[in-house]
């Protein structure tokens, strides 16, 4: 069964701690993305990667970091520098990069930082 | 700047009603994606279209390139259609609308 998995579904952290969100896909997609969703706002792009060992900042990359060491995996680290980390985080993948290809989304991780 | 605007933001209807959600977009966007976000948060791609009309079951999506406008229609709506519907414009990256929260009451 091909798809994208994100874990955990809910994550709670204390302010000042870094936290890493997992995203794995077995669709053999080259491109992967991280989005943030806040109430009343559209999805905003944090980082994307079009190929292994390469990634680009999106619109709101400050306070986040990523790695793409394997095609299947694109973990996102929310650092203590991110001022408002509480949000719903969605990972997606596509066969090619950016807007020209259909993106498949994971189930999301809801992060709460107190 | 590429922009996507959806309307309405919230829509409540009775089961069986015909539903229309609208999406307007700016210059530079070549195609539209329609997405459905379930209450649990997962997102499913419904349609990707750059011209004309597409139909899948009770869902119909249309796009008018000249007017830069797309609509998502749901016929014979059902409570299980309750979700947030998102349009996303294809530019160099996807540009997302704010979403329309649809509630269908039995």
Gist?
Chain A has 114 residues and is an all-beta fold.
Structure description:
With 114 residues, chain A is mainly β. Chain A has strands at residues 4-7, 10-13, 19-25, 31-37, 44-51, 54-57, 64-66, 76-78, 87-94, 104-105, 109-113. In chain A, the strands form 2 sheets. In chain A, strands 2, 4, 5, 6, 9, 10 and 11 form a 7-stranded mixed sheet that branches. Chain A has a 4-stranded antiparallel sheet with strand order 1-3-8-7, with no helix packed on it. The model of chain A has no long low-confidence stretch (mean pLDDT 92). Chain B is mainly β. In chain B, strands 2, 4, 5, 9, 10 and 11 form a 6-stranded mixed sheet that branches. In chain B, strands 1-3-8-7-6 form a 5-stranded antiparallel sheet, with no helix packed on it. In chain B, a hairpin with a 4-residue loop joins β7 and β8. Chain B is globular. The mean pLDDT of chain B is 93. The chains are: A mainly beta (114), B mainly beta (106). At the A-B interface, β5, β9 and β10 of A face β5, β9 and β10 of B.
Considering the chains and any ligands shown, give keywords for the structure:
heterodimer, A: 114 residues, mainly beta, 7-stranded mixed β-sheet, 11 strands, globular, B: 106 residues, 0% helix
The description of the largest β-sheet of chain B is:
6 strands, mixed
C-alpha end-to-end distance of chain A:
36 Å
Largest sheet of chain A: 7 strands, mixed
Mean pLDDT score of chain B, rounded?
93
Shape of chain A: globular
Reading the helices and strands of chain A in chain order gives: EEEEEEEEEEE
Shape of chain B: globular
Which chains make the largest contact?
A-B, 22 and 23 residues
Q: What's the β-strand tally of chain B?
A: 11
Radius of gyration of chain A: 13 Å
* Assembly category: heterodimer
- The N- and C-terminal alpha carbons of chain B lie at a distance of 41 Å
List SSEs of chain B in N-to-C order: EEEEEEEEEEE
Task: Please report the total strand number of chain A as a whole number.
Answer: 11
Q: What proportion of the residues of chain B form beta strands (DSSP E)?
A: over 45%
Residue fraction in strands of chain A: over 45%
